[in-house]
Amino acid sequence: MDFLIANWSLVLLALVSGGLLAWPLLQGGSGGGLSAAAAVQRINREKAVVIDVCQPEEFAAGHVVGAKSIPLAELEARLPGAVKNKATPLVMVCASGVRARRAVATARKLGYEQAEVLAGGMKSWRDANLPVEKT
Predict the structure, then answer these.
(1) Which of 7, 32, 59, 100 supports an S-S bond with 94, CB 3.0-4.6 Å?
(2) pLDDT for 70-119, tens place per residue?
(3) What count of Cα atoms within 13 Å lies in the side-chain half-sphere of residue 20?
(4) Which pTM value belongs to this model?
(5) Are strands 90-93 and 115-117 parallel, antiparallel or unpaired?
(6) Strand 132-133 to strand 63-64: parallel, antiparallel, or no bridges (unpaired)?
(7) CA distances (Å), 43 to each of 38, 82, 89, 101, 109, in order?
(8) What's the sign of the alpha-carbon dihedral 83, 84, 88, 89?
(9) What is the DSSP string of the chain?
(10) Distance between CA 8 and CA 87 in Å, rounded?
(11) Cα–Cα distance for residue pair 103/82, rounded to 1 Å
C-alpha cells in the first residue's frame, strides 16, 4: 500500500495507458468502423447500401461495386432522395475513412440510425482484395 501512495503518478499513468488501449475494444473493434469483411456481410445479409462520399473524380478512379456517389458536400441534400427508407443500413465510404465518419454523423442527423463507416476507406477495401469498379 505504501508503494501505491508513494508512486501514485506511476499508478495513474498505468491506469490511463490501459484505458487508452482498451478504448477501441469498447468502441466496437476498429474505432467504431466496419472492417471490409464486416461491410461485405452487411451488404450481402442486410442489403446495406454503399454510399461513396468521395469527389466525382475519385469515385471514377475506383469505387465499391454498386456504390452510389454522393459527395460529402451534397450528402445532406441528396441522401434522402437516394435512400428513401431510413431503416436501410448504410455503409459510408471514402478514400481513407475520414470523410466517411463525417458522413455517418450527417446521415444519423437525418435519421439514418444504421449508418456506419468502412474503417480505412477504399484503402482497406483494396487491401482485402475486394472488387473495385471504375467509371
Answers:
(1) 100
(2) 999 999 999 999 999 999 999 999 999 999 999 999 999 999 999 999 99
(3) 6
(4) 0.77
(5) parallel
(6) antiparallel
(7) 9, 16, 8, 18, 22
(8) positive
(9) -HHHHHTHHHHHHHHHHHHHHHHHHHTTSBTTBBPHHHHHHHHHHH-PEEEE-S-HHHHHH-EETT-EE--GGGHHHHHHHH---TTS-EEEE-SSSHHHHHHHHHHHHTT-TTEEEBTTHHHHHHHTT--EE--
(10) 49
(11) 14
Supply φ then ψ for residue 52, to 5 degrees.
Answer: -95, 120
- Provide CB contacts within 8 A for 86, sequence distance 6+: 110, 111, 112, 113
Residue 68 contacts by C-beta under 8 Å, 6 or more apart in sequence? 49, 50, 51, 52, 82, 83
Integer Cα distance of 19 and 26 in angstroms: 10
